[in-house]
Amino acid sequence: MKHLGDVCTIVNGGTPDTAVSEYWGGTHLWITPAEMGKRSSPYAGDTKRKITELGLRNSSATMLPINSVILSSRAPIGHLIINTLPMATNQGCKGLVPAANLQPKFLYYYLQSIVQLLDSMGSGATFKEISTGKLKQIRIPLAPRPEQRRLVGILDQAFAAIATAKANTKENLQNARALKQSAVHLMLSANTPSWTHTKIGKQIVLQRGFDITKVEQKPGSVPVVSSGGIKSYHSSAMAQAPGVVLGRKGTLGKVYYLETDFWPHDTTLWVKQFNGNDPKFVYHFLANLDVSGLDSGAANPALNRNQVHPIEIDWPPISDQKLIAQRLDSIDTQTQSLQSLYRRKLAALDELKKSLLHQAFSGNL
Asked: N or C: which end of the chain has fewer CB within 10 A?
């Protein structure tokens, strides 16, 4: 076991004065924690922003040699990259230049395995930061160089396989969403001679919700539905179930179905009259209605019912509505089940990475 300060040179970063244009747009690579967090590869050979030689000389930024391990030391603690070209960083990073007996990728993987520890060691009033002094005291199991290469080879191969599995799972998750959207589109646009060309306002009547403050709310079981969903519960209802609520301010166009009496908040439009139409079909119809182009808000997104009522549509008879609603409910259930499965797989793959890192640095791999 060695201290990081004994096997690494730790270099602080810095930022040239952003008000001096001569310091920016040069050829020296310069990276920040925000940019590091957006990278999927352990390696970085380019940066979004670059500084000039003049900017380098007039700041505390330092060019790190290639194959340094760069750690974001604040906002947040724990992003990691290995630079494949000389690179400077801002003050939110620390460059760890490994000694000859420490392989950069071995150091990279070890730091990745103790990110939670590093974060717990951070301190600060505004945001947590891990100091150079604390970083130097971190202990690392310094294996012989051949053993370092062996462990890095195993982890590289395993993590490549995990990355492929995650990519496939994410694609399956996206395909499940796309399949649902395709099915919904087909069912809601399958116009037949029995369907009527009409306007939304002829089929349903939308009504703006009712304002209620936290002070006015009394303990109860009635959901208060805002544009972002159920925000609280109240003692009395303003609308009877079944209900369909459409976000009109804030979260524009999000639709909710209520099976109990409810209080539609002022940030929503709710279906006051179904006019004999099937409520569940109305829910699916509105949930797949694109209202993004109807935004009438100057500062914040807003939707007016007078913008929705005149929209021309093809509307099925009640018998078709019930059948479509049942099929879309079934698709919803299946899609949610698939999405839950794929999310669990993604979580399991992340846990597998953590487990492999733990085994690698505890002598069990």
From this structure: N
pTM, whole model, 2 decimals? 0.74
Identify which of 142, 170, 192, 150 has the alpha carbon closest to the alpha carbon of residue 3: 142
Question: Which residues, including other chains, have CB under 8 Å from residue 359's CB and lie 6 or more apart?
Answer: 365
207: left (phi over 0), alpha (psi -120 to 50) or beta: beta
Q: Which helix (H) or strand (E) holds 58?
A: none
Alpha-helix runs per DSSP H in 125-214: 132-137, 145-188, 200-203
Which domains are delineated in the chain? 2-142 (3.90.220.20), 144-192+317-365 (1.10.287), 196-315 (3.90.220.20)
Answer yes or no: are the C-beta atoms of 256 and 295 closer than 8 Å. Answer: no
Confidence of residue 297 (pLDDT cuts 50, 70, 90): low
What is the rounded distance in angstroms from the CA atom of residue 120 to the CA atom of residue 159?
25
Instruction: Report the alpha-carbon distance of residue 268 to residue 55 in Å, rounded.
Output: 52
Tokens of 26: 């040069």
Residue showing tokens 């790190």 = 64
> Which DSSP category does 259 fall into?
S
Nearest to 156 by CA among 90, 193, 106: 106
CA distance 321 to 330: 14
Q: Are 308 and 269 a contacting pair, CB within 8 Å?
A: yes
Strand 8-12 with 93-98, pairing? antiparallel
* Residue 256: strand pairing partners: 245
Residue 351: which pLDDT band, with cuts at 50, 70 and 90?
A: very high
Cβ neighbours around 17 below 10 Å, total: 12
Structure tokens at 149: 């290469």
